[in-house]
Write a structure and sequence with these properties.
This protein has helices at 15-29, 202-207; strands at residues 2-8, 33-38, 45-50, 59-68, 73-81, 100-103, 109-115, 119-126, 130-138, 140-141, 152-155, 182-185, 191-192, 195-196, 218-223, 228-237, 248-251, 254-260, 270-274. A hairpin with a 4-residue loop joins strand 4 (59-68) and strand 5. The protein has two helices and 19 strands. The N and C termini lie close together (6 Å). By secondary structure, the chain is mostly beta strands. It has one domain (2-195).
């Protein structure tokens, strides 16, 4: 897994266009196959195939831009697919998840981008600032490949590619679960919104405290009333107690950055994004 941090701005193109280009460049460098990168259209789009951690899988993901200069929003939209057909539009790719919007910016975007063979996780700082995050690809299933052949997920900040500016105050990060901006793929072909630990028990997420100066990470497990399906790769709950956004930490030799839920700062409003 490799992590990339930096920023894009509007010095050569609108920043959300540059962010799409950066995602393309990073995923290509990490062994993903670029299936389509179309910059000739207004809503520039990117379709990719990840090789999986085994190097032999086919995990299809996509990102596109959408914007309205009059309404002053410049966003990304993300989805995960079950296949790819070159002749199909973005929205008609086989088995596509619901498309989930992510408010971005036409000006400077600071980013933390973490990619491996099975998923892409991204956090962005935009605007006033607020923090937006998303993920696409495959999670770690608690089942064999024969039992669960396509443990796919898509996570964005919005429940659709809606006309929503980053300054809107009700949108929220997907990792808390039980909301339609986090979807997982089920064996029957549907994409549903699971619950997620530890936010499924709100008091637990808000009650966590560090032990002295040691911060613990809590895996984000996807579940419903009858099953625990698996855990997200590279996304963890971390308490906001005595903690602030963009803090970095090292746990068991791995690096993490703390990201908050838009502008929220309660104890349960933070994740740790794995960077190595």
């Amino acid at each position: 897994m490799t992590a990339y941090t930096g920023f894009v701005d509007n010095s050569t193109m609108l920043a959300h266009y540059k962010m799409l280009e950066t995602i393309r460049d990073v995923c290509l460098a990490e062994g993903w196959t670029i299936l389509r990168y179309d910059t000739a259209i207004t809503n520039r789009e990117l379709l990719m195939m990840a090789p999986g951690l085994s190097g032999t899988e086919q995990i299809f993901c996509g990102v596109y831009c959408y914007q309205d200069s009059n309404a002053d929003y410049y966003n990304l939209a993300v989805a995960t697919m079950k296949g790819y057909v070159a002749a199909n539009s973005f929205l008609t790719q086989p088995g596509i998840s619901p498309v989930l919007g992510v408010p971005a910016h036409n000006q400077r975007i600071d980013y933390w981008l973490s990619v491996n063979g099975q998923r892409l996780n991204v956090a962005m700082k935009v605007g006033t600032p607020v923090y937006e995050s998303f993920g696409i690809g495959k999670f770690f299933p608690y089942a064999s490949p024969g039992q669960y052949p396509q443990p796919l997920f898509a996570a964005g900040m919005l429940t659709s590619a809606s006309a929503t500016r980053y300054s809107e105050t009700t949108h929220t990060m997907p990792w808390k679960g039980n909301r339609n901006n986090l979807r997982m793929h089920f064996n029957d072909g549907t994409w549903k919104a699971p619950l997620a630990t530890p936010w499924g028990q709100t008091t637990m997420a808000n009650a966590c405290r560090p032990a002295e100066t040691t911060y613990a990470l809590y895996p984000v497990m996807l579940y419903d009333s009858g099953n625990i399906y698996g855990a997200l790769d590279g996304i963890y709950h971390i308490t906001g107690f005595d903690n602030v956004v963009e803090n970095t930490l090292v746990i068991d030799g791995k690096n993490y950055v703390v990201i908050q839920d838009v502008s929220r700062t309660s104890f349960g409003d933070y994740i740790a994004l794995e960077l190595s």
